[in-house]
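User: I'm curious whether this sequence folds into something compact or stays loose and floppy. Could you predict its structure so I can see for myself?
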Amino acid sequence: MSLPSTQDIVDDLAFFDDWEQRYQYIIDLGKSIHGLPEDAKTPDKLVKGCQSSVWLESRVENGLVTFSVDSDAVIVQGLLALVMAAYNNKTPKQILDFDIDEYFTELDLERHITPTRGNGLRAIVAKIQELARRSIN
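Assistant: Here's the prediction. I'll summarize afterward.
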């Protein structure tokens, strides 16, 4: 998956005049994520705490954590793209050091998604950070 940098995403979203355009941009970002094959969408890869189904798979190669993600909802797929821009192909330390709260604040995201989507987003971040912590030990 090839995504813009987090700063490019922040800048791109700031360019749009309204949230309808921003949502479309986020959905389009989600389309750049290839997702997981159906046989990889197993219960052990489901992220608990998400309203929609979200599957997360990780592997560590050459010190970098690479994620494969998928969702059954297009807006959530877009939100996953925002998170992947921050965390994919990073070292565990980079994942844990990244200020995701500041990133979400810059995106002004959590004011514009439902509370249940916000909770799901936090569950995804927590799972990724947990995986990063485990790969350090």
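Summary: The chain has one domain: 6-136. The helical segments are 6-15, 19-31, 74-87, 92-97, 100-107, 115-136.
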